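Anyone else keep sequences and structure tokens together like this?

Example one:
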Amino acid sequence: MDVFKAVETYITKMVSSPSAVKVLLLDSHTTPVVSLTTTQSTLLSYQVYLIDRIDNRKRDRMAHMKCICFLRPTPETMDALAEELREPRYGEYYLYFSTILTKTAIERLAEADEYEVVREVQEFFADYAPLLPCLFSLNHVSTPTDSLYGSSPNTWNPAALERSVQGVLAVLLSLKKKPIIRYEKMSGMAKKLGGEILHRIQTEQTLFDFRLTQVPPVLLILDRRNDPVTPLLSQWTYQAMVHELLGIHNGRVDLSRVPDIRPELKDITLTLQTDPFFSHNHLATFGDLGMNLKTYVASYQSRSVSTASINSITDMKRFIEEYPEFQKLGGNVSKHVALVGELSRLVGRDSLMDVGEVEQGLASGSGADFKAVQALVMNPSIQPFNKLRLVMLYALRYQKQAASNIATLISALQESGVSQEDAQLVYAVLNMAGADQRQDDLFSIENILAKGRSALKGLKGVENVYMQHRPHLSETLENLIKGRLKDTSYPFIENQKGVGPNSVLQKPQDVIVFMIGGTTYEEARIVSLINQELVGNGTGANPGTRILLGGTSVHNSSSYIAMIQSALANFPSSFTQPPTEIPAASSSGGAGPSLNVQLGGLNLSVGGIAGTGLYRSAGEGVSIQADGIRDGVKNLFGKVKQGVESIGLP
């Protein structure tokens, strides 16, 4: 269930033969796939001396070289390949396609191969980007002309549907899995995708003729609209934080806008396979990261001292042998110091500690009220985009109880510099993923208590005030693993072989989750931690459940809101207006809670203007405790910043 190894195996098979000087031709889809799974030095070891794009028409003719083409068979790519074969620049061609080829495409290639230079045609199912061993993405970027959605949030854009079908099929084929398919009942898009995937599996039975397992794998198709909260939150773990504040695009991070950045650090690579420090710390909280970075720098400095003392021929020989590794270590230390320093600068500049605390209160039900959100919206030091995220979270949390407050906050957004077009996105997110659109109530008292029980059982629970939120996916996976995921909420696609009355009770060994509308690195972290826990609890006879997460994309808050904004081009104009289910008015002096119970330092409130929730009491002891946690985390950030500024690297 390791998508990185699956794609790496394909690439190795591809470039290992023929044993001759080779050129590798890629397209816009396969270039990031190759760059994520191999390095230039590895390709050189297989005699690949030139890498180029199939659509580059200025390539020189080199008849002595063999050509390997790894392409996705889109109309544009097939046109370029046909033109290449009609006027071949290389002596032989070995064609590999990342998804299933149609009979028409094969016939077209045969017609274009007038000089009979094609030696091999194969399908290598690597039609997705393997970002982590347990995470893949289809890299769909939503634009008004290429939206994920059709005319409503419950219908597909046909092109996006086809791309998703092909991507998920490639994952299944590369891992040799023939799953039973379940989907989120509220999502017409999930049901449509599941039905299309099942149809293709039944059509391509020879490709899916894999050895049967006692309990079949499960493909669980979810919809981002059932949890709009997770992609809107600030992040506080290394990989998720880099993606949120700077953006990770196919393993690369652009630091060109960082003040006083060194030229060689303007564009850096950030992947687990090529960066041991990132591999060990990508799931670490920012506080832990600061301590680990300090240790990493100290290790480098001790190596610097040892290499400075050359007193004999033996020392000289050792220095020459270790210098490449030492130089690589120095470059990696410089990269992470620059990266952590920039994260620390952005956190301070944008007051993200204050924003994050209120966000967590809204998302986890631990307490965050109208006044706290309003104060940050009116605060000039808070970035307009962060204000918009806060109001979206407030609207999702209090949609049914505080319509007038939502309208007030939207007006405050416009007064504080957010454009009317952007402010209306608050209503757009409610119309797309509000309480009446979601299958599960993210903020019900049952869900809050269930999340609390889950947190108490493992995965380190709540690490600090900024890590209270747990994605809804964690609860869904826990129920699936234990055989408690109800088929009334997550039914099976109809007419599947292997689905019986007891299928819902079976505990699957392999689970592939696909999130329509994009997943997040926070959810990937949860999957990684669950996998680690399940592997630790497994035995030789029963190795435990393995989970793989994927999505149409991997979001940060910017890309998620951009996806909503681009979808509005195809939706009715009413999507930027208040949802009809919100009450027209609600005064702040409305009815109090119908139930109010004090549970030690917690207050259980059911009904009333604040809505149902589990809140912290305003008692002095709890206040002091929260302040202590907050101050402790701020001190950690301060130490990270001071440490970064004090490190002098060559």
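And example two:
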Amino acid sequence: MTTHLLFLLLPSLLFHFLVATVTANGQWQLLQKSIGIVAMHMQLMHNDRVVIYDRTDFGLSNLTLPDGRCRHDPNERIAKIDCTAHSVEYDVASNTFRALFVQTDVWCSSGSAVADGTLIQTGGFNDGERTVRTFNPCPNCDWQEINNSLVVKRWYSTNHILPDGRQIIIGGRRQFNYEFYPKTSTADKAYALPFLIQTYDKNAENNLYPFVFLNVDGNLFIFANNRAILFNYKNNSVVRTYPTIPGGDPRCYPSTGSAVLLPLRNLQAQNVEAEVLICGGAPRGAFEVIRKGVLFKALNTCARIKITDPNPNWIVETMPKGRVMNDMVMLPNGDVLIINGAGLGTAGWENAMDPVLEPFVYKTNGPVGSRFELQNSSTKIPRMYHSTAVLLRDGRVLVGGSNPHERYLFSKVMFPTELSLEAFSPNYLDPKFSPLRPIILEPASQTHLTYAQKFNMRIQVNGQFVSDSVLVTMLAPPFNTHSFSMNQRLLVLSTGKPNGTGNSTYEFEVTTPGSSTLAPPAFYLLFAVHQEIPSEGIWIKIQ
């Protein structure tokens, strides 16, 4: 790309901006200077290990496979014999990692962890585009690959767990359809989804890695480009069409913003409400002009919509700064961390500049216009294209990746290939909040629960206890890649009144969600939150 840059400010959009920003402190910690690969994809497993992988088609990584093992792949473009790893398993507790073996190309793929805790990863590039790979979280397990398990090629697709435990796989490059995994019969096919044709922009696409969320009525909210539908995947019909996002700018790859389903609350109500928040992205036309050496400023807006409302409308708010390729991480207390990304350009090779180093926190329940909290702590490592971020059980956020180049480049470039891992500790982990931080004493981690089950929770709070400020939240750890966390879902559980039992301990009753439509079967992280300060999580399985 040429070095002369034209930074364009688009005309003011004709809707109401409200913004007020406060500041808070977070903390960064370098965990690993190098894990040998770029963390392009991440999934936290229920054994507190994180499966990380990159791609195989660029050549050799910086991590040698153990025991003299090598990949032999005649389909590879560069290294047909490759004795380096392209996937690792990171152990959070010991801050160590081990190499994993992946045979076919997993570049720009998708996945989700299913009910038994297995990571099911789908698609990729070249010889991996119709492959399904599984990873079982056990001490010495490795990837297992099932070739030709997908009906069509899946590259830049989005996955979501359904109430029956299957995954739906939506879209991908030149794929205007969806399919399911696992297959229920040999007759399973790909089903047309015209919405993906309607949201396709010539020369830019802007509908890859669509934002998909399971709504509380069992239908899917699907956002691509700049608009959304509510989709009944059982009978292949559009239930409703939502208003176009204000301003009309794209938010999906390569004009990459991010999105979250905001916390689901009041789960025992007759009509549970659901809201979606979409932040960042690039203005329309930004991707097309990059070849001319022009970088547009990233969008600085978030748009929020109540998708269950009979007459839904977007509410637009302004971030402290524009971001493209930003990740959005649901925090245990219901807030949203906005992290990674750039202030200029789009996703893609060499397409962005101006790294945004300071995270933002979006206060979900704050008043409109006062929801953003700028974290004063900045990383020194730009996290540009192909960066990732996932929440850990202890409340930290694991951050890795960044490689805006077609291969690994470590010198003579503005943003070198980044092989490091960091942890960002949000402000709630500040030691000054230790007296308020709950400790979960009961139930035990790895407890198995059923739907609509009442169970006893016992916590310890050593400081001043405020009984009406206690929440119990349940988070589905997502599969994260390309600025979108697939299957990310936080539920606020119904609780009874806490009763003191001595020694700074308190007991109360908690009720799990009533159905798999609210919480698809999976392992979840369970947190106690007191005065917005979360405990460490414990693992539960609901099915």
